[in-house]
Each structure stands twice: as C-alpha cells, then as structure tokens.
Amino acid sequence: MLPPLTDLVALLGITLVLCAGCLRLLGRRDPVAPATRWARWVTAAMFLILWCPVGEAHLPLVAYLRGISSDLSITLVAMACMDACRRLFGLHALARRERMSVDVAVAASALFLYPLALGWGDWDLYRWGWGGAGMWAVLLTLSLLCWARGLRLLPVLVALALLAWTAGLLESTNLWDYLMDPWLATAALLQCAKEGSRKLQAAWRPIGRREPDPLSSRRVS
Amino acid sequence: MDAIAALVLVAAFVLAGWKIFSRPPVASYAGVPHRAALPRTALKAPPNTSLPAPQLSPDGRFRFDAQFVSAVPGQAVHAASIVELADGGLRAVWFSGSREGAGDVSIRTAVMDPATLHWGTENTLFDRQQIQRGLWRHVKKLGNPVIARAPDGSLCLWLVTVSLGGWAGSSITWARSTDEGASWSQPRRLVTSPFLNISTLVKGAPMAYQDGQIGLPVYHEFVTKFAEILRISPQGQLVDKIRIPGSQTSLQPVVLVAGPAQAQVYMRSGNARALMASVTEDGGKNWSAVHATAWPNPDSAVAGVVTDTGSQWLALNPTPQNREILALLPGDPAQGFDGVRPWVLETSPTPQTRLSPGDYERLLSHELRARGASEMQTQAYVASAMRQLCGPASCAQEFSYPYLLQSRDGYLHLVYTWHRTRIKHIRLDPLQPVLAPPATVPHATAPY
Questions:
Q1: Is the pTM of this model over 0.90?
Q2: Looking at the structure, do residues A41 and A86 belong to the same domain, yes or no?
Q3: Does residue A218 have a pLDDT over 90?
Q4: Residue B125: what are its φ and ψ, rounded to 5°?
C-alpha cells in the first residue's frame, strides 16, 4: 500500500538524503571524482533496504528512521540530490560562495528560530511560517539580493521550498519546515564555524604567506 | 539556465504570495463547538428505573451520581476526556496499558447509554500499531487523548504520540469521525514545532471560532514549559498558534470563553505554586502576562467548562501538596474563582497524611466492591494502584486529570483518573440547591 502523498515525499526525502550521504562517505578519498561502480551498487542496495517492510507494523525501515529524524526540509533534500547528481553523473561542483551563502542564511536563521521556538521569550519566530507576510517579504529581499550578487543557489532553493509549501507537499503547513530543519541547521552552523576559523587563521598568518581566498572564485571543478 | 531559474523564482513568489495574502482575517470566538454543532432540541429524560443512585458529596452539601467508566482490571489508566453524542449519550476516551508510557498502551473508549446512564463495555480506539501504520513512522508510546465535537458536527480526537525520548518528545496526532466515533479516519500529525516537531502535548478541551476553525490549548515541555493555543482549520490543518506570554513553568492550559473577544485561560503550575491564569480581550490575538490566582496547584491538571447560563466551572486539586482532594469551583467571568467555595467531590479520609499500604488496600477494596467489582477484579485494580502510587511505607491517593463537559440537558459531567487504576465519571446538576457549609470546614476550602 502506498502512503499518502505527504508521507511518501517525507520518506523519499529521507531516503535520498541517506543515499547521498552514503555516496559522499564512500567517495571521501576523492571528493571530486565520480562515484565508483562499487559505491553506486552499495547506494542502490541501501535504497532498496530502506524500503523493506520490517517490524510488527510492517513499515519500511525508513519509516522507523523517520521517527528519529522527523521530516527533512526541501532545502536539505535538494542539496543532497545535487550532491548525489554530481557524484553519479559527474556534474560540476557548486561554487564555494554559493554553498556559503546558503550556510550563512540557514545558520543565522537557526540561531534565532530554534531558541525562540523552544521557549526563549514570549515571541515565536516560527509563527511567521504560517503565512506571515513579513517572512515572504524577507525571503523575497534575500533572494533578490543574492540574485543581484550573482548567487543562484539560495534563490533557487527558496523557490523550491515556496513551491512545495504552496502545494502542501510535506506534513507541515509551516514554511520554515520546508526551508530548513535541525540537521541542515547543524551542518550549516558547523560549516560556518569551520569557515570562520579558517578565515581567522588566514588573517593571523604573515601577509606574504597568505593563501588566495577560495570564495573569490565562482566555480571549482 | 538563469532564465529558467528566474522564472521559477517569480512563479514561486507569486504563488506563495497569493496563498499568504488570500488568508481570511482572524475570526472571534464562537464558544463551545458541540453546542453549535448539535441540535438544541430537548432531550428525552431518562426513565427513573435503573439510574445510578445519587450520593451526597463528602461534605454533605450537594448530590451527584458517580460510576466507573473503565472496566479492565489491572491496567494503568489516565487522561480521560468525554464528548456528548447526538443521541444524548457520552463517549469517553482515555489511555490504558500495563504502565504509563509502555508500548502496550492504547487509546480506549466506552459509551454511556442515554437511557440507562450506564457505561458500556470498553474497546480499543487506537493502538500503537494502528497509529504507526497511519502515520508511516515509528511511534514509541501514546497518551492524553482529547475528544471533542468540531464545529462541522464531526468528532475530533487529538492524542499525544512519542517517537523519540520521553513525554517531552511528544507531538500531536489527530483523527476524525463522522459517525459519532464508530469509525475513524487514518491518523495524521500536527507539526507544531520546527525542532523535530517534538514537545507539544494536548490536555484541555478545544473551543470554536466563528469561521469554523478550532482553538486547541496545548503546552510545550522540552527545555522549558509554556502554554500555547493552536488554531486549526475546519480541515484539521494547523494554521497558526499563539504563546501565552509569561507562561514559562505553566502547562496544560484550559480556555474558558466568555464572549466573542473575551476568554480566560487557566493553567497547571509546573513548579507546584498556584493555579496560573491569563486573559484576552481581543479574541485570542493577544493574551495578558500570566499571573497566579489565589488557588494553590500541586502541579496537577485542571479542567474547565462554561455552561449555557454563562457560569464557569473549574475542576482541580485545590491543595498545595497533593492530588488527594478533587473539587469543582463555580465562578463567573467577572469575578473569576478567587474566594469561591469549592464543591468537594473526592477526598482522602486523611488528606494531610499518607495512608499505610494496608489501610490504602482496605480503602480501595471497599469502594471497588461497593461498586460491583468481583474479588478477583478488586485485587487486580488494587495491585495496579499500589504499583503506581505506593512506596514501601505509604501510599498517595490520587484523583487527578479531570475533564469537564456540560451536556445539552444541563448536567455537568466530570471524568477523571481514580487512583491511576480506573476512570470515574461524575454527573451533577450545577443548578441544584446547595446546603449551608458544614461546621467543620474541609481542608480544601482554605484559600491558598
């Protein structure tokens, strides 16, 4: 029996993110090279195993993982799919500044969204996600600013999340859940911390020994 | 490629903008959903034969009739709620299992016959496997079912499901019935929090808005406690929520609607201080900062109802230390509940001191046998109660987790947890003449 659409989307999303993670893990020795045949077979097997019905409730294995992970955002699923496509079909990697723009936006939002939603004060930023005009305006401004600076990833991810929210593809009716989730937020915060510490180290190095800033190049092969 | 991206971006913002800006304005309160949804025709009075015998309250001031609702011995039962059915009967729901939070806990239900006023056999409404299959996710435990009639006349059931961790990892699941609870839709989840959707729990009765939406009082427990009101569309989808300001440490809100724009919310105090309250004067768009009332609260749940005459009633444990006294408070929107005299329904014979296990066993066995339990059933009920409420030297009596409803015939109905082993139902006439207070003032009448 097929699950309702919102459950199917959520289960597929978790499966895709896990498969992309598997490809990434198996190809960690050479992040640029396409996935090996062995990695492809392992990932395909993982996809199938995740959909095998298990337990008393006879649910696919991924449904049990869903109990822990909760539903993943459209942004995380889209980024995982892009990463998997790069490894499977040998597409170009995203420019580092494109990735960083998303990481910074997600990390900055997470720093306010989660503490406020978990009871820090009486105001809840999560409320904006149920059709708040302010959130729509902020997203529009952010997307236009990124577009004007030549960044395409963030506006496209925002557009995908908005389209999915308008169509009601996830169980949630709140736009925030389409834009980000705690797993993506954690990854973004770690990435920002890593980038920050790298920049700090570079700033303290003698001027003659400084490396060129990788963010200045738009694409890396 | 840029042109396609730009087109997608424009389409996304136009469609989302249309969805956002076409939202209807927030409506005012409509009152209690079931009164609007059920016909107001006079119900046929039940025949006087075989009705439950009325009994005097512990202080002898008023009368009520009481029955047990749950009937499976040896179970841990808790968190009952009731709804009136179209034929004048009642349907109760509660959770029951080997212990609170166990994997075998299921949502149970029973129906009270409107002619005999006796409760029928109990059945399983949802078990963990059904919920897992309906939600397409792992579910570890179930709890706190709240049943109510939606403004469209259907029955709605909200319950707490946990996939990860303890009760602080809860989320709310709901189902709908269009045949008075005989069959139910597949369960669906409400997503109320961005953090893995954990830690929203339900306990209080919902209220209706004039546009057919439902207001569901809920509370949060992870990291900190606070109370919120969810606004749910007639289709059952969450459309908004508002936090009660200053409600940190307060939980299990109960909303009493006093008019289209006026309502009060009363809450359990998480740090066992006093019954907490907040008010709104604009239909719930803004709530006042939470303040303590004059009534103590031993970190125990509260229930409330507004009657068709406009009077307000709360059911609570009106003592600072324990759940050994259960009482009703009659109030009104203008005066609130401060200084009112409680209607005591249940009380321990020794509210200030805990009973020894032997005395506790004798006390419970006596009441269970008096209400028709066999010897074997009595032993199982008592064993369940003692397992949950007794230490090596003493036992705490518990009358807790009340839920209030007024039926169309004017009677108040209260269901609550009786010693964690049975669900009990009390039916009383709120307009009955009340005798003068006894010479000895019960413990509960002393205001906090």
A1: yes
A2: yes
A3: no
A4: -90, -50
